[in-house]
């Protein structure tokens, strides 16, 4: 038999495939060394290059004993797009904190601003709201081609209760609030979950943009004062556990109906097309996340996305105050109105690919 040229101990320490890769890496480094050496004239430069080449060769030879470098590089390239989809929602959070930072800076310069705008009924935060609205509206237009359809259904003045479907991230409500503030010079008050008050810096943003948890009495008072108010009956539960089928997850919540009846304000149903294609919740272990959410009452399900799909907000016809309806009956009537908007304007199940195409190809509206 032909004798082996390697000892048993050495062959066990360095598996043959990894050893071969290490040799190949050394050959590549040697080739690069010779190519670089041909362009150098100084002996010191050649000595430095030689030391670097030997060091790199030794490093790859050592690492190659324990790690499959080719597989690691392949795995890194494969998982990079997945990691990016989980990091993109951080851009939304970053934009919120940029907004909060701007409001704090604006607040620090309050004396200077008040000296310039020293008119009688000047609202100190009006300028800040306008600048914030410009930034958010520009972000929506550039990143999602944001549009609002049915704006004529909003009253020019007087109260209106806007009931909307809650996406994984309610970014459409930020865009919508900014657009209405710029077009109508009216600020939409918003009901937000209580956990938001625990987010650092949130309280200033909530005070400026009129976001609060709200009770039936406080919400009715906002409407009686002639303001517009937005509520998502599904709340965080709908945000976390809704999917691309766009089913309403209201769980018999009738608080908004009691607000409408007490304030006698009209209800405007609202839905944003492709909302679930922009940001989605992870579909795995849904039951486990539901149990965890019910225990902590805090968003626990991971969110991914940030896809630049087309966002188009649709406003339905106003539902006028009807004293003959009970809160439960009014809730069913509003849910039916939003489901009509979904069935008319949304592709079910939602598709990220088609949502991207909607930015370039106008979609035909389904007949009633």
From TrEMBL:
Is rRNA-binding among the key words of this record?
no
- InterPro entries linked to this entry: Plipid/glycerol_acylTrfase
Q: Which UniProt keywords apply?
A: Membrane, Transmembrane, Transmembrane helix
A GO CC term? membrane
Q: Is tRNA-binding there in the keyword field?
A: no
Q: Which Pfam families match?
A: Acyltransferase (PF01553)
* GO terms assigned for molecular function: acyltransferase activity
**Which parts of the sequence belong to the Phospholipid/glycerol acyltransferase domain?**
147-270
Give TM segment ranges.
78-106
Q: What is this protein called?
A: Phospholipid/glycerol acyltransferase domain-containing protein
Protein source organism: Anopheles farauti
**Which taxonomic lineage is given here?**
Eukaryota, Metazoa, Ecdysozoa, Arthropoda, Hexapoda
């Amino acid at each position: 038999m032909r004798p082996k040229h390697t000892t048993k101990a050495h062959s066990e320490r360095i598996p043959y495939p990894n050893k071969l890769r290490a040799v190949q890496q050394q050959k590549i480094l040697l080739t690069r060394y010779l190519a670089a050496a041909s362009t150098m004239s100084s002996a010191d430069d050649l000595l430095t290059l030689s030391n670097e080449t030997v060091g790199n060769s030794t490093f790859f030879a050592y690492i190659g004993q324990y790690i499959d470098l080719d597989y690691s590089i392949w795995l890194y390239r494969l998982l990079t797009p997945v990691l990016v989809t989980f990091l993109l929602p951080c851009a939304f959070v970053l934009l919120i904190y940029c907004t909060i930072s701007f409001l704090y800076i604006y607040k620090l310069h309050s004396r200077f601003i008040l000296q310039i705008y020293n008119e009688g009924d000047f609202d100190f935060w009006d300028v800040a709201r306008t600048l914030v609205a410009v930034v958010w509206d520009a972000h929506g237009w550039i990143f999602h081609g944001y549009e609002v359809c049915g704006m004529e259904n909003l009253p020019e003045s007087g109260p209106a209760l806007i009931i909307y479907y809650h996406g994984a991230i309610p970014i459409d409500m930020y865009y919508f609030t900014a657009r209405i503030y710029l077009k109508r010079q009216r600020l939409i008050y918003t009901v937000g979950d209580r956990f938001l008050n625990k987010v650092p810096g949130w309280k200033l943003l909530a005070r400026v943009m009129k976001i609060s948890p709200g009770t039936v009495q406080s919400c009715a008072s906002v409407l009686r004062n002639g303001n517009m108010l937005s509520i998502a009956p599904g709340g965080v539960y709908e945000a976390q556990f809704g999917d691309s089928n766009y089913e309403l997850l209201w769980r018999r919540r009738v608080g908004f109906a009691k607000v409408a009846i007490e304030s006698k304000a009209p209800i405007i149903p609202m839905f944003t097309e492709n909302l679930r294609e922009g940001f989605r919740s992870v579909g795995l272990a849904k039951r486990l996340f539901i149990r965890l959410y019910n225990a902590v009452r805090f968003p626990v399900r991971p969110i991914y996305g940030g896809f630049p799909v087309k966002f188009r907000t649709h406003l339905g016809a106003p539902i006028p105050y009807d004293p003959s309806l009970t809160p439960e009956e009014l809730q069913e009537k509003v849910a039916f109105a939003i489901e009509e908007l979904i069935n008319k304007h949304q592709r079910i199940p939602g598709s990220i690919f088609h949502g991207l195409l909607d930015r370039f190809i106008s979609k035909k509206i389904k007949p009633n």
